[in-house]
Amino acid sequence: MGEVLDEGLLKKIRPIRLLILDVDGVLTDGGIIMNDAGQETKHFDVKDGHGIKMMIRHAIDVVFLTGRRSEVVEHRARDLGVGEVHQGIRNKVEAFEEILQRRNLDRDHVAYVGDDVVDIALLKRVGFSVAVADASDDVKKVADYVTKKMGGRGAVREVCEIILKAQEKWDEVATRYDFI
Asked: Are 134 and 40 in contact (CB under 8 A)?
């Protein structure tokens, strides 16, 4: 990913200390699979997961914030080391304000990735707002950045890399994995 970001976007990304992610349509492709017993499964991208782990490893915390409820999301969060998950949230802005207050963060310290109209109010409030490539057009209009990858197909990894590179932490990642 050799994209060069303009200085205005870099100014929004550099202060980020928390990445909040919607789940369905962002961490997944939006598909929900139900078996005959009513158990739900979801498809997650391993590269997105590794991006999340890299963020946490480099002192940028990650929170899942979703309107649906699913045990699968709790399992995925535990697997990745995401310690804060909010499910069944009807008012994402209210939950966001509570997260800010509890963590003593400013809006400019937070990035949010969304895909649908329920995310717009929150996208308008964070320091760095991101829509996935297959987000609704209304979401794309308000986002600071639209990913090249689709939700559940590498969009979160793309965002993680952008943040780490903008904050000049990518060399640490490269050194860890010996690719520079």
From this structure: no
Q: Residue 42 and residue 76: Cα distance in Å, rounded?
A: 10
**35: its two tokens:** 């078996």
As given in the structure block, the two tokens for residue 160 are: 């993680």
Tell which residue, 41, 45, 18, has the closest CA to residue 155.
45
Q: Which of 175, 135, 153, 142 is nearest to 51 (CA)?
A: 153
pTM of the model: 0.94
- Map out the domains of the chain with their CATH numbers: 16-174 (3.40.50.1000)
| Residue segments in the chain with a per-residue pLDDT below the cut of 70 | 1-3, 178-180
Phi, psi of 130 (to 5 degrees): -130, 135
Rounded to an integer, what distance in angstroms lies between the CA atom of residue 41 and that of residue 45? 13
